[in-house]
Amino acid sequence: MAGRENVVSTTTFAGDGAARFMLTYNSEDANPSYGHIIVRVPSIDFIEEEMAAADAFGAEALPAGQFRTKRLAFGPGSDAPIEARFYGFDPAVLRSLANEAKARFAEASDNALALRIDWGEKELVLKPMYSDDRAQEAGISRSDITLILEFATTGNRSGTYREGDRQIPLVLRAPQDDGLGLTDYLIYSDAGQAFVQLEQVIDYLIYEPQDTLIQRHDRESVITVGADIPRSMTAAEVMVEVQAAIEAMELPPGYRGVWGCDLESASDAQESLGSQLPFAILVMLLITILLFNGIRQTAIIWLLVPMSVNGAALGLVGTGLPFTFTALLGLLSLSGMLIKNGIVLVEEIDLRREEAPDLPLGDAITEAAISRLRPVLLAAATTILGMIPLLSDAFFASMSVTIMGGLAFASILTLVAAPVFYHLFFEFGERRKQRMAEAPA
Predict the structure, then answer these.
(1) pTM, whole model, 2 decimals?
(2) Domains of the chain, earliest start first
(3) Backbone phi and psi for residue 292, each to the nearest 5 degrees, phi listed first
(4) What are the pLDDT digits (tens) for 147-197?
(5) Which one-letter DSSP state was computed for residue 169?
(6) What DSSP string runs through 299-350?
(7) Are 258 and 87 within 8 A, CB to CB?
(8) Is 335 left (phi over 0), alpha (psi -120 to 50) or beta?
């Protein structure tokens, strides 16, 4: 990668991820089998080309490993766009559920790419079979055997060396070229005040496949099946293809499955937003009622709010952008803009009727609509123009399109729908007033 023409710089990490250099980056936990390369390119136009080149290299050079390329995301980070999690207590059952889910992912959709299980593959572990009778007679415990095996392989941490503000661990390990077999090492017995050979306190050594990386959440074992998606698709589109197949799995009693990653983040964000939204709407409704001291004007104004959905939908469909959480925020912000437009128009009609009580209802509505045409359109136009710079931003593009499309469409409808609603709501009262005026004394 460093030698490619369009690569500005590369930074590599082995054994863990980078330090958290931006808010949305999640650093990987320490893992000796993990490597990470951060690649910088001159502009966003070169990202897809370099990612494709890296994918091709990984498929050829590392066929037995997991090689994935990923753009830094402007939003909550996750290991995979689609994740299915299974909670339970037996690692063997959890792994079987994960393997079944992995097969169902592959069968349900060709767009579920780079399927993986976060526990990794099982590893061969050298397991000493502890001899209870001989070891207890010699005064050797299981922890003593563990310590001597660590000393012979990875080493025991025996202390810390301080160098200024740095703390350097001191690791004590047996020489790797001493010619000793693993069972030849000696263990000191406090009870017998003597050294005992490891071979004398174990029956034998066996190789056994074990889960060496078990993830837990809230003290409960959890295994996650992750899948990438094509860069031309969204997680929601692929979820439609695989959701039914995964949710049809039969789980044993005591086990449960949940969706993670983007779906979980969106659900959490929408749940948090939904808990506060009713209170906000209630406050806005009360303010509108107090402003006009009437129910009919309030109903007219709030009937204009749903009209923004049409424009927002047309804008997102026309641009091909997904309805993200930022788009939801943009849609909610449109309600305030449309309420403001409705208040301006309805208030003007009320003022015209108060100034000229004898003016027919239709004429008052027409004059008010004409007089408010310029303020409403100019206010919408300035907001729409202010959103244009955000169209090139990957994070705010969907929000800007939602606001621009919804406001443009709803502003035009406001100038049509608000006068119509006003006439429908007040026509009966106006006719009743005319009949009373015409009735003989």
Answers:
(1) 0.62
(2) 1-72 (no CATH), 76-121+211-260 (3.30.70.1440), 123-210 (3.30.2090.10), 294-438 (1.20.1640.10)
(3) -100, -15
(4) 888 888 888 888 899 988 888 989 998 887 777 777 788 888 888 888 888
(5) E
(6) HHHHHTGGGHHHHHHHHHHHHT----HHHHHHHHHHHHHHHHHHHHHHHHHH
(7) yes
(8) alpha
